[in-house]
Specification:
Blueprint: H1 3-109, E1 136-143, E2 150-156, E3 163-168, H2 173-190, E4 196-201, E5 224-229, H3 232-254, H4 261-268, E6 275-283, H5 289-301, E7 307-314, H6 325-330, E8 332-338, E9 341-344, E10 353-356, H7 362-379, E11 384-385, E12 405-412, E13 416-422, E14 430-433, H8 440-454, E15 460-466, H9 474-478, E16 484-489, H10 493-517, H11 522-529, E17 535-541, H12 552-571, E18 573-579, H13 590-594, E19 598-601, H14 606-612, E20 628-632, E21 641-645, E22 647-648, H15 651-667, E23 677-680, H16 691-698, E24 708-716, E25 723-728, E26 735-738, H17 742-759, E27 765-771, H18 782-788, E28 794-797, H19 802-818, H20 821-824, E29 829-835, H21 849-852, H22 864-874, E30 880-886, H23 889-895, H24 898-901, E31 906-909, H25 914-921, E32 934-938, E33 943-949, H26 957-970
Parallel strand pairs: 3-7, 3-8, 4-5, 4-6, 6-7, 11-22, 14-18, 14-19, 15-16, 15-17, 16-23, 17-18, 26-30, 26-31, 27-28, 27-29, 29-30
Antiparallel strand pairs: 1-2, 1-10, 8-9, 12-13, 19-20, 20-21, 24-25, 24-33, 31-32, 32-33
Length: 971
């Protein structure tokens, strides 16, 4: 079988089977299809029903959802509209509040928030009574918004906040300088006058950046620290001073009582501390490492103490080693240069546009500086009323000085009082230094007045010596302060020395008493004996006057002062020495000063601060106002510094207190054991206060004839009796007065005339007065009035009667020469007084020629000049004495030759040249005399003494003298 057949045979069977199976399969296929169609139709019907149901349900849900959405949308739209309305309302309210705040701020802070071009600045005036504003304008902020652009002042809390820093990278420096000038000017205009102090540091500009402010020094040097500082050494010094000030404020004023200087100032009142502003341009140029650290310390600690910094820094420059600018920025308000403008580094203002102010035009700038400067002059004085520390009247004179004295001087800070404590430990004596205008005189008046209120004169006795050219202590003499044993006004060195010598004698007296009582202190003496022994307080103002010359007075004063200081403690003698400066070629020895533990320094130089306090204690250089002082009872050591303010006692109030004290003493029945000694160097002596002469005039009877007759010429420059010229019946007992002070000459002549009259009964003396005074002088009739009131024979003549007077006296001299000595000694005394010898031409030697030559055979009478020479030469032995005043030594020699001059054993030299002085009194000393001074020279007594000549007596004195002498005459 072929393969093909075989293949076909194999295929037939399956094909037959297939042919049989196809119909069956078709059958079953049709059947299956029919069943499937039936099922499909059933499912389609079910699905259609479900679809219709779902569509129905979906439409229902959709409608519900649409309805719900519409309801929600409507509610959302309602809420949106409400929110928009609320936001708009809030926006408008906020805007209105901003506008209201701007308006009220302008009302509250006034002109200080307005730009410089505001017309109000043209009418601006300083307000001394106002406080420092909380905010000051720095420039202008612009804040852009969707609806509005907000423009408002950029305000800086300058006082009571932080320091202020401009940071640049070199760019923007000039804008920062201008902004700083503008801000400083606003600050100066806003803070009450005299309550602001500037310290300028300008190392690059060399002061140019602050030049407009330097005009302030013309008004008050305290407003600006002398100049703008540029050198590293000076910068360090200024920063050290501010640091020291901060230390003082913290440790002395604030302590733990006050959080800030504002709280302290509120309590301090008149002594409120001024604010201090440190202005630094171009930091860190010329700043050392130490200076940079000090600057950071001031910025950190200063605001609490009223010290603020305004700093312009260039961040591109290298900082001092170890200094991080970020440390300074953390304690400051920072304005930084940002690309092309300044920005305030603050989260609230970072996105705002800041436009800084520039200074106003020069005219307005100068006007503000001038007005503030002028107002500062008026407001600069700090006056703490004396009544705040004065003892109430119910406690006057109730304190005991047994264990020392304690005197209030003024407030320390807001609540405490500084006392002067003497008599305990080493606190026995006081040194006071303060330049002119520092309040030294006020301090003395406060001490003296408070002492006089606190202690009775039995407890404290005062010796007051003032070398100044003024009358500071005059009131204590005028009102006869019972505590004042000695009052020296514009004293002479010699008088001051005599006061010291008197106290030295008192030391010795008390030493003898203490040894006899077996005690070594005043307290023990009073306790053991039960006797009152007052403490003595010697106050010498301008004590350096003792040492202005290297002479005997200086040497003795130094020795006695040293003895008083070293020994006075045991005997209750305390010394207070005051001076404008302790420097000088001649001064109190350092060993003596070292014994004076209490030091009071007022405003003075650094050198004087180191002299009065200690070499390492220049604190007084920082005192900035009159009356501000440092009390130190630790020999000047730094730890002993106690700043205080001297209470203010004006002249009228002091006069009122002195009057009350005088009246109080009278009500207590107090009578001084000795009369008050007054030396008034700026005025002539008063003859009415001459106690020996007053005693003579008050005598009820005429005295017996004496071998020596005294005439008083003035008051000595020492604590001793009045200066007297003694006339005896012996040769040359005449008196010559030379000097141009015609009133002093008349005063001495008047006193001499009355002195003679008071010691002679009317029948034992005759007076001849040749008065050549000017007819238009105020005292032209004084000698005539005095002569008229005398019960003695008096002949007063003018120039044309001179020859007759001289002839009469010469005749009397000749007569007495012819008598025996015993008879001549009983003759009445004759006194010839010539006032104005320079006008007595008839007595000149050259005029004698007219009497010497004559063609007549008849003998001519002797000339007045020759007769006058006879009177001078022969008269004193016979009781005929001459007193002469001549204005100059030159005019004197025209009348008197050398032989005649030798007939004047007693001479008075007033102001004249050194050569004339040497010719007249054998010393050039009169060449140095001042006003109201003269020398009395007595050849017989080998005596040369400075004194104050008597001036013209009062208008009532001649009448009183006449009354006293006439009363004696009638009885």
């Amino acid at each position: 079988m072929t393969p093909e057949r075989d293949l076909i045979q194999r295929i037939r069977r399956p094909a037959a089977q297939l042919a049989t199976a196809v119909p069956a399969a078709k059958f079953w296929r049709e059947r299956f299809l029919a069943a499937a169609q039936s099922q499909r139709d059933a499912r389609l019907r079910v699905a259609e029903e479900q679809r219709q149901q779902t569509i129905t349900e979906a439409k229902s849900a959709y409608q519900q959802a649409v309805s719900e959405h519409e309801r929600r949308l409507k509610r959302a739209e309602t809420r949106y509209e409400s929110a928009v309305q609320t936001a708009a309302s809030r926006y408008l309210k906020t805007w209105k509040r901003i506008e209201t705040w701007k308006r009220t701020s302008a009302e509250q802070f006034g002109i200080h928030l307005t730009p410089w071009d505001d017309p109000a600045w043209r009418k601006w005036r300083p307000e001394p009574g106002s406080g420092a504003p909380e905010l000051l304008r720095l420039g202008q902020f612009t804040v852009p918004g969707s609806y509005h652009t907000l423009t408002m002042s950029a305000l800086l809390p300058a006082i009571g906040s932080r320091s202020f820093l401009f940071r640049t990278d070199g760019r923007g420096r000039q804008d920062a300088v201008l902004a700083a000038q503008s801000f400083l000017l606003r600050l100066f205009a806003a803070v009450p006058p005299s309550k602001l102090r500037f310290t300028f540091i300008d190392p690059v500009g060399l002061g140019q950046n602050v030049a407009p402010f330097m005009h302030l020094t013309d008004y008050d040097s305290q407003l600006v620290s002398s100049r703008a500082w540029t050198e590293p050494r000076h910068i360090g010094q200024r920063l050290a001073e501010l640091t020291e000030h901060i230390e003082t404020v913290i440790q002395t004023y604030l302590r733990n009582e006050y959080a800030t200087i504002e709280a302290y100032n509120e309590q301090a009142g008149e002594i409120a501390e001024p604010y201090r502003i440190l202005v630094v341009f171009d930091f860190p140029t010329n700043f050392s490492e130490d200076a940079a650290r000090r600057l950071l310390s001031i910025a950190q600690n200063g605001p609490r103490c009223g010290v603020y910094c305004v700093i312009l820094t260039d961040a591109s420059k290298p900082m001092p080693h170890g200094f991080d600018l970020a440390d300074l920025e953390r304690v400051s308000t920072v304005i930084v240069w940002d690309e092309d403008h300044f920005a305030w580094e603050d989260d609230d203002f970072r996105d705002s546009v800041l436009e800084l102010d520039s200074p106003p035009e020069p005219e307005l700038f100068s006007k503000i500086v001038k007005k503030v400067g002028e107002a500062s002059l008026e407001a600069g004085n700090v006056e703490v009323p004396f009544d705040r520390i004065a003892l109430p009247e119910d406690r006057w004179w109730k304190e005991s000085s047994t264990n020392g004295i304690r005197i209030p001087m003024g407030p320390i800070g807001a609540r405490k009082v500084q006392y002067l404590d003497l008599g305990q430990g080493t606190a026995q004596h006081v040194l006071i230094a303060g330049r002119t205008g520092s309040g030294k005189s006020t301090l003395f008046h406060t001490l003296i007045t408070n002492l006089a209120l606190t202690y009775s004169p039995d407890e404290v006795m005062l010796y007051l010596v003032d070398f100044k050219k003024g009358v500071e202590f005059k009131g204590y003499a005028t009102h006869k302060l019972p505590h004042a044993r000695v009052v020296a006004i514009e004293s002479e060195r010699e008088f001051g020395l005599s006061v010291l010598q008197g106290l030295d004698a008192e030391l010795k007296r008390r030493g003898d008493l203490f040894r006899a009582a077996g005690v070594d202190s005043l307290a023990d003496y009073r306790k053991k004996n039960g006797k009152k022994m007052s403490r003595i307080l010697l106050i010498v103002d301008e004590f350096q006057e003792f040492f202005t010359e290297d002479d005997r007075v200086a040497a003795e004063a130094s020795q006695v002062l040293d003895r008083l200081v070293r020994q006075g403690r045991a005997f209750g003698v305390h010394v207070i020495l005051g001076s404008q400066t302790l420097a000088g070629a001649y001064a109190l020895s350092r060993s003596t000063m070292d014994q004076m533990a209490v030091r009071i320094a007022l405003q003075c130089t650094e050198a004087d601060s180191r002299l009065i306090l200690a070499d390492d204690n220049p604190a007084a250089r920082l005192l900035s106002r009159p009356g501000e002082a440092i009390y130190n009872d630790a020999n000047g050591l730094v730890e002993g510094n106690h700043p205080f303010q001297v209470a203010w006692l004006d002249d009228d109030e002091r006069e009122a207190y002195l009057e009350k004290i005088h009246d109080f003493a009278e009500t207590k029945g107090y009578r001084p054991p000795q009369p008050q000694i007054v030396f008034e160097g700026n005025a002539p002596a008063l003859v009415a206060q001459n106690q020996p002469l007053n005693d003579l005039l008050a005598a009820s009877d005429w005295p017996e004839p004496a071998r020596r007759i005294s005439t008083w010429l003035g008051e000595p420059v020492a604590i001793k009796p009045p200066i007297a010229a003694h006339f005896r019946r012996q040769s040359a007992s005449n008196l010559l007065i030379v000097g141009r002070d015609d009133e002093a000459a008349m005063g001495m002549m008047s006193a001499a005339l009355i002195s003679f009259a008071a010691q002679h009964a009317p029948d034992t003396a005759r007076f001849y007065i040749l008065d050549f005074s000017s007819v238009d002088a105020s005292y032209a009739d004084l000698l005539a009035n005095l002569a008229q009131g005398l019960p003695h024979p008096v002949q007063r003549s003018r120039r044309r009667h001179l020859p007759d007077v001289i002839a009469e006296i010469a005749t009397e001299v000749d007569r007495r020469l012819e008598e025996d000595e015993s008879a001549a000694g009983k003759e009445p005394a004759i006194y010839l007084l010539i006032y104005g010898l320079q006008r007595a031409r008839d007595l000149r030697q050259e005029d004698d020629l007219g009497y010497s030559f004559s063609t007549d055979e008849e003998e001519k009478p002797p000339s007045p000049a020759k007769q006058f020479s006879t009177i001078l030469r022969e008269g004193p032995d016979l009781g005929v004495h001459t007193l002469i005043w001549c204005d100059t030594y030159t005019n004197l020699t025209r009348t008197l030759d050398r032989r005649s001059l030798r007939e004047f054993e007693m001479r008075v030299a007033m102001q004249m040249g050194a050569e004339d002085s040497a010719n007249l009194i054998d010393t050039p000393a009169a060449g140095k005399l001042g006003l109201y001074r003269a020398y009395f020279y007595s050849e017989d007594e080998a005596r040369l003494e400075k004194f104050r000549p008597y001036g013209l007596p009062s208008e009532t004195w001649p009448a009183w003298v006449e009354k006293m002498l006439r009363r004696r005459n009638t009885t």
